[in-house]
Amino acid sequence: MTYTHPMATPATALAISSPAIGQRKLLYYFGPAFVASIAYMDPGNFATNLEGGTRFGYQLLWVLLWSNAMAILIQYLSAKLGIATGHTLPENCRIHFSRGMTIFLWVAAEISALATDLAEFLGAALGFYLLLGPRLLAAGIPRTDVLLLAALVTTICVFLILALQQWGFRQLELVIILFVAVIGGCYAAEMFFIHPHWGSIAYHTVVPMLDSKSLYLAVAMLGATVMPHVVYLHSGLVQPRVQATSGLVPRARLLRMELFDVILAMNGAWLVNSAMIVVAATAFAGHGMASMSIETAHATLGPLLGPASATLFAVALLCSGLSSSTVGTMAGQMILEGFLQVRFSIFLRRLITLLPALIVIAIGLDPLRILLLSQAALSFTLPFALVPLLILTQRTKVMDRFVNGRVIQALGWLSTTIILSLNGVLLWQSLGGQ
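Structure (tokenized):
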């Protein structure tokens, strides 16, 4: 079964198969990694980076640097598998692994997809709440009702974005890229409102510092940066271009251009995440704040840095939530269809995954705590995406001439070992270890 991207149409395939020459031909290759990169700037990143910057200042910037290096490698391998085989990672798991193992991997993937959907939908609802909520609260509407209203508006917006599939996948790619540009622009503007210590930023970016107090956040930041659902997704995002390409040389060129796409998109996401920590560290660290909720951060940024700073924060969070919620829904649909070989409506998938977020909002749980917990859960489910990816990409019968070299394979297993080790230490600490 060859994966057909839900956003691909015959018209899209025709356009992809006949790119224009020159600059437009180059631009045609860019897009899949930018769609994947939105998951690296989702509300979970806002939560972990806000908490990390507030509690530990610049100390955890190095986590973002190394997480980004791993993300570049992992996203490249995911795209490589999709280009070499013409199948997504879930489809390859179903084809090459036993049924029992396939079901196990599907359950792990669904857990990561549900955790992702929860974080991203909550983030978008919070973005609407921060922008529109104060007026509604002033009118006497209870906070929970305002959040539920924000969730309803979020639902409508996500369905409208998903409806872009009617005009082809490239249109959706461009909309997601626009969201990425808005998020990046907001945080670039935020940097003008603060006066960070650039020497400390450079030092903590390259010098690792980790203790028992910061371990939980470090693992959560890792989970928020190297996200399992986009490990699966990227192998599907390249399929519209793969289906319009035949022959070894064209696919090799596609893979080479996808590497450039990955490097550009992932490094952009890294800069945005670093800016999040820098803003939180500069604005909130050292002011006696043991923790910082998203709402409190928004309310505090106004008095500290001006109303424009608070508005930029809310707009970035809203764009992050809407776009990542859309991408998360696409990943969830691809996971379900690939592992189980069934057809499933992307709109029904989005409707079902709304329920956990609505429950969290309705019973009044702290969104920041839920966001942090979801990101730690993602880090624990990440190996169940990475290990199959590495196993498949090292098999010649799967990859043919695109099989991994020794260096790439070693780096992949090293990344997985680091993630497993951090998770093991965190589990030991959580069970009462010192």
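Confidence is low (pLDDT under 50) at residues 1-21. The chain has 21 helices and no strands.
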